[in-house]
């Protein structure tokens, strides 16, 4: 039926449905935002009173009820550094191989993608058992920061690879054709054109990987250990912030105040690292695009 100028384009029933759908969407968004604000507010309320320079620099005392989390912050950052140092080159390299050198219908590529999808859903405790058996026992690394970081790298690789691959595949094929027509080598095209264009996908994978690595507890209990002293090398055992929070809240009577403060520091670290990663990637993207 063709609408005439005398007939409304949207009937009252359709307008009501649109309004109801809009209200529902806003309610869902408000609910999610409220949960985040409530969580952050609860942690701030209980933890901000414990924060001080001494809390950030001193070692724990009295099973964590007193003192600070200085060695634990150092251990957490070292574990995260090992994780990203191992996962980034492997993840980006594998994503480039799958996106640029393997056709989507290729059997080997499909097997790799299916394996990555399965690995992404494996529980962290299974990764912890694998890391303990392979890195700690078989390779002789023992309970160490290196073992924990490499185990976390295995956990974040599927997320990093798949997000980077999707980012590369979302780059228009005309970019590749134009670069080839100009006589630009495939390597130069990849480094200066495709990877910068796929940077949003890489950032998403990086942020998700960092978030999972910082929040991981089960896998690190089996690999990096439980020791809360200052590590002197990557072969030393080290307690991460997530393990420290778990220990204070579950095993230490009277440890809740410091557990909340440690959780607040963990959230701040996550926000700062994500902001720095996004800013660095944006700067790199801007510079690379104009230096082809």
Structure in words:
The chain has helices at 12-47, 53-57, 70-100, 107-120, 124-138, 145-169, 173-181, 186-197, 199-215, 218-221, 241-250, 256-289, and strands at 60-61, 66-67. The protein is mostly helical and 292 residues long. It has a single domain, classed as MetI-like (MetI-like fold, Orthogonal Bundle). A two-stranded antiparallel ribbon has the order 1-2. Strand 1 (60-61) and strand 2 form a beta hairpin. Helix 8 (186-197) packs across helix 12 (256-289). The protein is globular. The mean pLDDT is 85. The chain crosses the membrane at residues 21-48, 68-98, 118-135, 141-161, 193-215, 259-281.
Shape type: globular
The SS-based structural class is mainly alpha
CATH class: Mainly Alpha
Approximately how much beta-strand content do the residues carry? under 5%
Q: Which superfamily, in CATH terms, is the homologous superfamily?
A: MetI-like
Helix fraction?
A: over 70%
Strand order of the largest sheet: 1-2
> What is the radius of gyration computed over CA atoms, rounded to a whole number of angstroms?
24 Å
> Biggest sheet, open or closed, and with what strands and sense?
2 strands, antiparallel
Average pLDDT level: 85
Tally of separate helices: 12
What is the N-to-C order of secondary-structure elements (H for helix, E for strand)? Answer: HHEEHHHHHHHHHH
Count the beta strands: 2
The oligomeric state of the chains shown is: single chain
- The CA-CA distance between the termini, in Å, is 55 Å
Which fold name corresponds to the CATH topology?
MetI-like fold
Low-confidence region ranges:
none
InterPro entries: MetI-like, MetI-like_sf, Phosphate_PstA
Family: Belongs to the binding-protein-dependent transport system permease family. CysTW subfamily.
Main location: membrane
Transmembrane segments: 21-48, 68-98, 118-135, 141-161, 193-215, 259-281
């Amino acid at each position: 039926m063709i609408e005439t100028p005398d007939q409304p384009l949207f009937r009252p029933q359709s307008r009501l449905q649109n309004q109801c759908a809009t209200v529902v969407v806003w309610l869902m968004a408000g609910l999610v935002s409220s949960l985040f604000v409530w969580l952050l507010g609860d942690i701030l309320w209980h933890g901000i009173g414990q924060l001080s320079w001494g809390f950030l620099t001193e070692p724990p005392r009295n099973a964590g009820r007193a003192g600070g989390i200085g060695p634990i912050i150092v251990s957490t950052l070292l574990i995260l550094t090992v994780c990203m140092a191992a996962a980034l080159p492997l993840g980006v390299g594998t994503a480039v191989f799958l996106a640029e050198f393997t056709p989507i219908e290729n059997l080997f590529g499909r097997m790799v993608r299916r394996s990555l999808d399965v690995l992404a859903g494996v529980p962290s405790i299974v990764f912890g058992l694998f890391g303990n058996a392979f890195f700690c026992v078989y390779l002789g690394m023992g309970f160490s920061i290196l073992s924990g970081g490499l185990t976390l790298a295995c956990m974040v690789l599927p997320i990093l690879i798949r997000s980077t691959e999707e980012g590369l595949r979302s780059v228009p094929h005309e970019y590749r054709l134009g670069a080839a027509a100009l006589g630009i080598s495939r390597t130069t095209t990849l480094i200066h054109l495709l990877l910068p264009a796929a940077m949003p996908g890489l950032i998403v994978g990086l942020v998700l990987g960092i978030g999972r690595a910082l929040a991981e507890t089960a896998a690190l209990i089996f690999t990096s250990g439980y020791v809360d002293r200052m590590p002197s090398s990557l072969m030393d055992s080290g307690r991460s912030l997530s393990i420290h929070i778990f220990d204070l809240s579950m095993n230490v009577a009277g440890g809740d105040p410091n557990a909340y403060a440690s959780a607040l520091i963990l959230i701040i670290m996550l926000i700062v690292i994500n902001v720095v990663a996004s800013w660095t990637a944006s700067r790199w993207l801007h510079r690379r695009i104009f230096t082809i």
